[in-house]
Specification:
Layout: H1 4-8, H2 25-50, E1 53-60, E2 68-77, E3 85-91, E4 96-97, E5 104-109, E6 144-145, H3 151-157, E7 160-166, H4 171-190, E8 199-205, H5 210-215, E9 223-228, E10 243-245, H6 251-262, E11 285-287, E12 293-303, E13 307-313, E14 329-336, H7 342-347, E15 365-367, E16 377-394, E17 397-415, E18 422-438, H8 442-483
Parallel strand pairs: 6-8, 7-8, 16-18
Antiparallel strand pairs: 1-18, 2-12, 2-14, 3-4, 3-13, 5-12, 7-9, 9-10, 10-11, 13-18, 14-15, 16-17
Helix pairs in contact: 2-8, 4-6
Length: 484
């Protein structure tokens, strides 16, 4: 059995009887100062412990989001019709996806970027249009040529006015011409304009009547538009409202379309039947764009290799006049990867110095064709993309806090030899920026707190001892001097 005396012998903190100690004012003052110093240093150490230090490094990209990258965009084109607006994705590996529609939404807009109608759905059947086998050498001109001076007169006189807006240089217009003229001739024989007054087929040469074509937002040739008497003006916005025909272009199909349009209109009936389309033609007759602009919103998934997003006018059965195309656009939003919500960035204020600075370089900017080139003006954006990842290490484990893709942007307006387009070229860096959060361990915090308390207490004791001994020595010398 170990005696208590032996246990007491290992006591590091031997007690001095209270009556052998002496309190002093200097010791009390130094004790107060030491206590304040301890509190101050403890607060500084606690602040340092709660703060998270970060280290920034550049490493090879080790993305966990797969081989594809999501690209979100919202771009408005005041002079590109939704009727022909198309989004394509290409990359250096040979991927070439044209006219994407599944994840893309197109909305007509006016020059002030205000929506003027409902979403426009792309017509995928244009590439399969049948043009018939009519003789292209036929020089008959049965379709009434319309001009800016006569257009309104005819559109208000006939219940149905079907107009072919064409360009003489256009390959597709020339293929349509024989069928159109033959259909116009047969229509005039069946429905005499003088005695019937229900339907008329006309033609507009857009190289001669450019103002009339612009007024009806014609951007591709040929464009077959259907005007119903009294419905060519939309009262709430003042935009022209009519329909477009996207069906086959042979004589038989055109005549069938005319017959279906006339079914609900009796010969003696001079009232308009707005809902006069049957199921036979509803798939090939759609509402024409009421304005010449388009807002394109959506996203694409692209491989993580250099590539490009191309927005342009596209059709497998229309031609475009490059000199009249204007790819001026406004970028509302363009980002790579998963979008970081503003709330998340607000909640994680410590990350703001490192994130959210370059992930929206193009947002809120206009890119305008200022007319320094005559035609065929393409607007290109070159985007260099790099991934930034924040990693936190706690309790010996590492986990990703947030990931985002930031980019630099350089834009250029250039003259080309093909149709004008808007290109967004992107090049992903094989490296990524890694921001590591390194919080201090609790054991380190406790060690420093003990060091603060012990160090201040010891230093204060030394100072008190020096001060006390100095005062006592001075008093002793003074007393010796008086005795002498």
């Amino acid at each position: 059995m170990v005696s208590t005396t032996r246990i007491k012998s290992v006591d590091f903190y031997r007690k001095i009887p209270k009556d052998l100690t002496e309190a002093s004012l200097s010791g009390a003052g130094l004790s107060i100062i030491a206590t304040l110093a301890m509190v101050f240093l403890f607060g500084m150490e606690l602040s340092t412990y709660l703060a998270v230090t970060t280290n920034t490094s550049v490493i090879v990209d080790k993305s966990s989001d797969g081989d594809f990258l999501r690209i979100d965009f919202n771009v408005s084109f005041p002079s590109l019709s939704c009727e022909f607006a198309s989004v394509a994705v290409k990359d250096v590996l040979g991927t070439n996806r044209l006219n994407l529609t599944k994840t893309i939404k197109k909305t007509p807009i006016d020059p002030h970027l205000r929506a003027t109608g409902a979403e426009v759905h792309s017509t995928s059947a244009l590439d399969l249009i049948n043009h018939g086998d009519e003789d292209h050498g036929d020089n008959t001109y049965a379709a009434i040529p319309l001009t800016g001076a006569t257009f309104d007169k005819f559109s208000h006189h006939f219940q149905i006015l079907v107009v072919n807006f064409y360009a003489p240089w256009c390959y597709w217009s020339n293929r349509l011409k024989p069928s159109w003229e033959k259909a116009a001739e047969i229509t005039r024989e069946r429905y005499n304009p003088e005695t019937d007054g229900r339907v008329l087929l006309g033609s507009v040469d857009c190289t001669e009547e450019s103002t009339l074509c612009k007024r009806n937002h014609i951007q591709g040739y040929p464009s077959i538009r259907i005007f119903r008497k009294g419905s060519d003006l939309k009262e709430d916005h003042g935009h022209h409202e009519h329909e477009s025909y996207y069906g086959d272009r042979d004589t038989e199909s055109i005549l069938k379309m005319v017959e279906e349009l006339l079914k609900p209109i009796k010969k003696e009936d001079h009232k308009l039947a707005l809902d006069g389309k049957t199921d036979n033609v509803i798939s090939s007759i759609k509402k024409a764009p009421v304005s010449g602009g388009c807002r394109i919103v959506g996203y694409v998934r692209a491989k993580k290799v250099p590539g490009q997003i191309i927005i342009s006018a596209h059709s497998g059965a229309h031609s475009f006049d490059a000199s009249q195309m204007n790819m001026t656009h406004y970028v509302s939003h363009l980002s790579f990867g998963t979008m970081i919500s503003e709330r998340l960035l607000t909640d994680m204020k410590r990350l703001q110095p490192y994130l959210g600075l370059s992930h929206e370089r193009l947002n809120g900017k206009w890119f305008v064709n200022e007319g320094q080139f005559a035609a065929n003006v393409t607007i290109e954006h070159y985007l260099q993309v790099v991934k930034t990842e924040v990693v936190s290490r706690r309790f010996g484990q590492e986990h990703s806090v947030i990931e985002e893709y930031e980019y630099t942007a350089h834009s250029n307006v250039a003259h080309g030899y093909y149709y004008p387009v808007a290109k967004f070229r992107f090049d992903l860096s094989p490296m990524q920026v890694l921001i590591s959060e390194n919080p201090k361990s609790f054991s380190h915090f406790i060690t420093n707190v003990c060091a603060i308390i012990g160090g201040v207490f010891t230093v204060a004791g030394i100072l008190d001892s020096i001060f006390h001994n100095t005062v006592r020595l001075v008093k002793k010398k003074v007393e010796l001097g008086k005795n002498i």
